[in-house]
Specification:
homodimer; alpha/beta; two-stranded antiparallel sheet; 13 strands; globular
């Protein structure tokens, strides 16, 4: 049987420890192509680059392993890999391991999950991995077996069409995680707070975004609940934003235009 | 009764004709505050600015009308308005009028809809308006009465919690649109094509993204179908990415970790 082709990307940039760990884990499983941003692209969501031209660099090329960097966003990396660099579509796209949570509403701001959703849009099974630890030396040891489990299952069974997985790992306490939980995205909100500072030469104010995360529910079937219980959260996600329950409710708005 | 407070933003930048038209339409309806990007921010999706500090400029301040620009993305504008500039939450957020479609999967790349979804996340009724015409002199005349209809209804009746509307107008044929249709997001895909050019001084290749849009269905209840029939499409949207049908299907993946 031919080796599966695995595309690896992330949003923390090609030199982040998270992607280096993910590459190391993927290499024994297939042919690996890395296309990752040159520089950190956190919080880029589903942004694409339309105002500057894209340029890529071939970093390494060995048997069954090729590595490119791109001066774009994570979504650019997936598009550029699928439509420019690869001659056939990959069997799997993995994105991460992101340094920081992409659970709950964080998915919408996430470049890591932007890349995974872009893969799903191209109907390629895609998984985003994130760990609730921003530290450069975040400990990935406990996550390894879960990554291998999910990747092997996805390569074997596939995912439903146009679906990705949003996988988050609790910050490691240096003990085994308490299993894996299939769950839904929890409702939450970022209460933002802008820190004001004064520019030393112009005397003008500038601001840094400094939010605090508020969970809006305590339900047991959510990703945040699983993570709080030191479980690995897995949310199957898609990219249909339609609020179906509201379609009939708004039907009367079609009428009475003057 | 006190005048409603309406926050206006966009992704084409504060000087785009689309936002100037939207401001003109909103002024008679309430107190209007504009917080819009200094420069074009198309295709920024739900990106937020975390690597450079934000700075705003007060452009105009009159009775019941204030206008600010911000060196950030559309989502930054909404966050900065809600948490820094405004002393009380607005009754409505409107974003647009975007020059170009945000129907179907375009919503995920859209800064216009990123701003509207950010409003919905703050539980403020929010509407994104877009027209299928990239021209700087796009004709908004036919759209006006639909914008007023939707804004007045939303101010009067509200929207369901955590919901926004994605409103798209066909390119004007200089005749009345054939009504308004509440619909769902259609399934589609961008087949990307990167145009390669050679840099005149370095001799190196660079690339521009140049996709073509493929509709993956012909169903009559979708936004693309309404637009093709010269109707105004209105899709109620939310920001829960969970693919609920897949939760039980993947339950067995919780087991058998070695």
């Amino acid at each position: 049987m031919e080796k599966p082709l695995i595309l690896v990307t992330n949003d923390d940039g090609i030199n982040a420890p998270g992607i280096r760990k993910l590459i190391e884990l993927m290499k024994p499983l297939g042919k690996v192509v890395v296309v990752a941003p040159e520089t950190a692209q956190s919080a880029m969501g589903h942004a694409i680059t339309v105002r500057i031209p894209l340029q890529f660099h071939l970093i390494q090329s060995q048997e069954d392993y090729t590595e490119y960097s791109l001066n774009g966003t994570p979504v650019d990396c997936v598009k550029f890999a699928l439509h420019q660099l690869l001659s056939s579509p990959p069997d799997l796209i993995v994105s991460g391991i992101n340094h920081g949570s992409n659970a709950s509403v964080n998915i919408i701001y996430s470049g890591t999950m932007g890349a995974a959703l872009e893969g799903a849009m191209a109907n390629i099974p895609s998984i985003g991995f994130s760990i609730l630890d921003y530290a450069h030396n975040a400990r990935f040891d406990e996550a390894e077996k879960y990554i291998l489990h999910l990747v092997k299952l996805t390569l074997k069974k596939g995912l439903e069409p146009y679906t990705a997985l949003n996988v988050n790992f609790p910050k490691s306490l240096e003990t085994d995680y308490k299993g894996l939980k299939i769950c839904r995205q929890s409702r939450s909100y970022w209460k933002e707070d802008f820190e004001e500072r004064i520019h030393p030469s112009t005397g003008k104010a500038y601001f840094w975004l400094k939010g605090s995360f508020s969970l809006l529910e305590e339900s047991h079937d959510t990703d945040e609940y699983a993570l709080k219980n030191y479980q690995v959260s897995v949310v199957p996600v898609h990219f249909d934003f339609t609020h179906y329950q509201q379609i009939e409710a708004l039907r009367s708005w079609e009428n009475n235009l003057t």
